[in-house]
């Protein structure tokens, strides 16, 4: 699912309609605010990170493209995941980081084009009462959702 613009392997982000001819939903203000705040917080520690105003959100899939070097803000929700990244596709040489629910990962500039992806999803054996309450209140299914926010 995409907000703002749709990804198409042939036209990239040029297509502004769904397969049924309808327009994609606009990017929710809360997502825009989340990305802006995450970047502002990161800029306190790293002044090389440029600002951006996201107008695209890819949900539940990660796609490449957009060569501008502007930051990508990735928000993890739900199950934890092993995230790999590096300058090679050789899994033995890649760096690994655990992304847990609520984690925000930002990368841009020279690192925008690095190889990256989720190696595996870590399924919890049991759930806390708090997690169960979130499921009840939101109607989300168990699993992992990734929000990838970027500017076209």
UniProtKB/TrEMBL annotation:
A GO molecular function for this record?
Answer: oxidative RNA demethylase activity
Top-rank taxon, per record: Eukaryota
Write the record's keywords in alphabetical order, separated by commas. Dioxygenase, Iron, Metal-binding, Oxidoreductase
SUPFAM superfamilies, per the entry: Clavaminate synthase-like (SSF51197)
Which positions does UniProt annotate for Fe cation binding?
116
Q: How is the cofactor bound?
A: Binds 1 Fe(2+) ion per subunit.
Q: Is Coiled coil one of the keywords?
A: no
Gene3D superfamilies membership = Alpha-ketoglutarate-dependent dioxygenase AlkB-like
Statement: the UniProt record of this protein carries the keyword Metal-binding? yes
Alpha-ketoglutarate-dependent dioxygenase AlkB-like domain residues: 60-149
InterPro entries, alphabetized: Alkb (IPR004574), AlkB-like (IPR027450), AlkB-like_sf (IPR037151)
Q: Which cofactor does it need?
A: Fe(2+)
Q: Which GO terms describe its biological process?
A: oxidative RNA demethylation
Q: Which GO terms describe its cellular component?
A: cytoplasm
Family per similarity comment = Belongs to the alkB family.
Protein name in UniProt = Putative alkylated DNA repair protein AlkB
Tell me what organism the protein belongs to: Helianthus annuus
